[in-house]
Amino acid sequence: MSRKILIVDDEEVIRKFLRIHLTKLGYEVKEAADGEQAIEQLGGDDFDLLICDILMPKKNGWEVIKEVKTNPKTKNIPVIVLTAKNEDTDMFKGYDMGADYYMTKPFTKAQLLYGLKLMFEEAQGAVRL
Amino acid sequence: MEDQDRKKIIIMLRWTAIIVTSYLILFGKGRMTNLHLSYLLIFVYLLSNVSLSFFPKKWFSSLKLFYPLVLLDTGIVSFGMYLSEKMVTDFYIVFFLIIIFASVSRNFKLLMVIGGITALLYGVLLYSWGLFLKDDSSSYTLRVPFIFIMTAFYGYIVQTLTREKRQELTISEDKYRGLFENANEGIILLRNHQLQIADVNREVEKVTGYIKGELIQKEVFDLFPPEEMEKARDFFKEVAETGEGKTDSLSLTKKDGFSTEVDLSTKRIDLGDESFYQMIFRDLTEQRKLEKKIRQSKRNLEAIFDGIRDQLSIQAPDYQILRVNRAVVENYRTTFEKILNQKCYKAYFQRSQPCERCPVSVTIATKQPATSIMKSSEDNTTLQIFSYPILDEKGDVLSAIEYMKDITEEQKLQEQLIQSEKLAGIGILASGVAHEINNPLSGIIGMAEIALEEEDPTKNESYLKDILDCAQRISEIVKGLRSYSRAAKKEEQGLVDLNEVLEETLKMVRLVAQKTPVEVIKKFQPVEKIYGNIGEIQQVFTNLITNAFQAMDGKGGKLVLSTRSVGDSVEVKVSDDGMGIPRKYLNQIFDPFFTTKKPGEGTGLGLNIVYRIVTQHEGTIDVESKEQMGTTFTIKFPIRRAET
Q1: Are the CB atoms for B403 and B387 separated by under 8 Å?
Q2: Nearest chain B Cα distance for residue A36, angstroms
Q3: DSSP SS3 for A129
Q4: Residues in contact with B80: Cβ distance below 8 Å, sequence separation at least 6, in sequence order
Q5: With contacts defined as CB-CB under 8 Å, which chain B residues touch A108?
Q6: How close is the nearest chain A Cα to the Cα of B312, in Å?
Q7: What's the pLDDT tens digit per position in B146-184?
Q8: Is this prediction's pTM over 0.90?
């Protein structure tokens, strides 16, 4: 069974190329355009990875991550933060809140692949332990 | 004496006199002459006393009643005697003797003794003439008690009058004594002879410390200290020679040996047949103390005036310089003499007419303080001029204080501060713009990578379109940034379209504020351009709109921007429905370095800069705010044409 990934970003073009990349790599991809949609989706489905933007309308990325990481049902889902906020303080905040990988825009496919590798190998390792 | 007693006594005495007189008339020797007239006289006399008993009591202490009464009685008794004796009797002499006795007598008891002796002597006389014990001698016999009664009657009346007169004198004496004693001035009465002190009042005792007894009979010169003796002697000599009053300032020696300065007036006066000098003096100690205080406070004020390093001048309503402080003289390298009485505009600004925006003219017209900023033509300094009215007792403007402060340095610093705040703003803007560009940039890179990998060329069109879209978005952002920074760079004064500046500023701030979902309502009316620095005004709007976005805290809300003309100014309102400003902070928000943000998040200079820029443009800024309801800033810029 292929892994299921949720992409949360209000920029359609970003969702689009992420979807194309990830689908080609064999993942099942779901999308959300803002924080509220993301929470909704997370409630309905089981995901193996969350790729989340920070600056979004309605509910921002920080809030989404907080909810994911405090909910026992979703707290084990690895989270990749994908944001234009590239200051160190934002990155530290992201890790402090429980994000597993912090990726700043603009980014390349190579960076994405590295992130995916890190997430799933670590997750597998965790299972092995 | 009681009026009641007096009335009784007078009426009683008169009754006795009436009875005796009537008897004498009716039974006197010549009674047959004119009987009708005799009866009429007796009737009148009776009637007079009866009517007298109806008179109010207090009339009996009035001279207006006494004199007619004495005249009437003398007349009736004399006429009665005439009727009875036909003037051939000695009785007349006795009667007038009585009246004389009574009028000269000062002592009632003595008068009664004299009256008694006279009556006795007359009785003895009558007896020796053999008229006393004859059958028809009763009319003679009656004369003896009559003498006594009439003496008593006239004596009583005279006595009462004298006493009353004396009483009146006493009252008037007391009155003047009171005036004399209670006067706030010291009064000394000197006998002309040797200038001896005859009387002094209480104030003299108070001022000199002597009591009255110690002063009486003293020579007046004993009161002057040795060093003023010469002056005092000359003073009195002059009064004596000219005979006119004289006033001078002299010192008096007190009992304790100290001297006190007085203002002394001396005048010759004649009381009765004696001539006196009247000395009236006022103690100047208090006045001297007060004068000293006034002089000191004047010196203090002068020191403050001169000690202030900013230029101060006092000007008449026609701009004539009445007074300047040292700073003015030093600054203009002139002297007090040269600058005083010149016109302000001439002395300070080398103009032939008052300056256009002279605050003194405003103060004179409105009686209110005024201020304005002017550039000195001479050395290109910027002066802030304040004027403050000096009012007279009626509340009219007597003159104005003009206070000139060289704010050239201050302005330079302020400009630097604004500049650095602007730079900081551009820094924030740059990072905001970077964020904003990063999104489409991610799109371009991502889509380009996909296009490179794509084996099916027909699909590439869609990817390229996405890339183009993203690139165009970046281009828009850069364009906006350029126009914003172009305005921010401008340092020149010029005409500014506030609507345009608001529009551009909003665009940039939105960019920085990124995803905050704010509904912006623009209510722009066509307004006249104002004169000012476009870069600075943009800074004002940037700070206010940024604050508004921050107040809505990323949660979104409504931002209302409006412009309209109000009288001679343009009003700009920036209002949000954000968290509002707590009441306790409202009067601090324009203070420099006041911030409620966390360290590192705000400098606390934003609103202070706004305030400085607005006031420098001679505008006003007001804030209204309610917690959780929102905040509205209202700015008014005056519409004014470019200055020459």
Answers
A1: yes
A2: 13
A3: coil
A4: B21, B22, B24, B25, B38, B41, B42, B45
A5: 445, 449
A6: 55
A7: 777 777 777 777 777 777 778 888 888 888 888 888 888
A8: no
